[in-house]
Amino acid sequence: MPKATINGIGINYESAGEGFPVFLCYCRGGNATMWNSQVEAFSKNYRFIRWEPRGHGKSDAPEDPAAYGLDTSVSDLLGLMDHLGIEKAYVGGLSMGGGISTRFTLLNQDRVAGLMVIDSGSSAGHLTPEETKVMTARVRELAFSEGMEAVGHYSIEAVDSFMERAKRGPEAVKGIVEMFKALTPHGYTLTLEALDKTAAFDDRLSEIKVPTLCIVGENDPALEDVKFVHSQIGSSELVLVPNAGHFSNLDQTEIFNREVLGFLAKTDAQRAS
Q1: What is d(CA 116, CA 97) in angstroms, rounded to the nearest whole number?
Q2: Which residue from 117, 142, 217, 252 has the highest number of Cβ atoms inside 10 Å of its Cβ?
């Protein structure tokens, strides 16, 4: 994957295909490879750009706590678009990636042709619950004492979204653990701690006017948050993915790809008119 220096930090991204650009970002702990099942389908008609926020994947993971935050990731996405010479694009993401993309749209609506909120609780812009902060403290303890593999196993036991994915069998469990093993302890924990301090923006979602797809697994713990986003954005549509949890692009790839590409095609037609 190429790496661009954005805001003094190396941000990794992968670009496939040609056409109108589509930027997607994965969840906390995730990386660009988790969109692999979308690359062939999405790159047929679009320039599909998967990017990794700081502290994740092969992007740099600075050790300064002040180098992290939702708005910092928003600035990184803006810088990446500028670096690639892209004035306007479809943007979206899953879970944390959806929160980054929603916040990006709120602050840079003129750069967004359409928004995709995917299985994302953080996109609702609510304050972080205290129980989540308690889990973040436990993650920090485990990450620096036992390593990221231990964090992966803890997440399967304690975080409902990972718990739901793990029910799909040994391969799903292995995938979660491998995902966490690819992270640095400081990159992941500093990301979580910064997210826990994010100011609420749930009262501003109605300002978003671009076409928006809210797509969520019917068994996703983030379901109510995604429904809330849909209720606040008048230009949005809601799609429930059957028999899918927090990782709908992995759980039901064919349905997910069809629904997202349908949204993009419909928005393409609106742009053309």
Answers
A1: 10
A2: 117
Q: Look at residue 193 and give its three-state secondary structure.
A: helix
Q: Based on the structure, what is the number of domains in the chain?
A: 1
CATH of the domain at 219: 3.40.50.1820
pLDDT tens per residue across span 187-207:
999 999 999 999 999 999 999
Closest to 139 measured CA to CA, from 215, 18, 83, 55: 55
Tell me, yes or no, whether 85 lies in a domain.
yes
Among residues 15, 19, 17, 18, the alpha carbon closest in space to that of 4 is found at 15
Exposure string over 134-149, b if 16+ CB within 10 A, otherwise e: ebbeebbebbeeeebe
Is there a domain that residue 98 lies in? yes
d(CA 97, CA 53): 8
Looking only at the bridges linking them, the beta strands covering 9-16 and 3-6 are: antiparallel
Task: Please name the amino acid found at residue 117.
Answer: V
**What is the three-class DSSP state of 255?**
helix
The domain containing residue 245 runs over which residues? Answer: 3-126+197-272
Q: Looking at residue 1, what is its pLDDT?
A: 61
Q: What is the pLDDT of the chain when averaged over all its residues?
A: 97
Task: Determine the 3-state secondary structure of 257 from DSSP.
Answer: helix
Residue-level pLDDT at 273: 86
Tell me the torsion sign for CA atoms 265, 117, 54, 38: negative
pLDDT above 90: residue 18? yes
- The tens digit of pLDDT for each residue in 156-183 reads 999 999 999 999 999 999 999 999 999 9
How far, in Å, CA of 113 to CA of 268, rounded? 9
Domain-located, residue 133: no
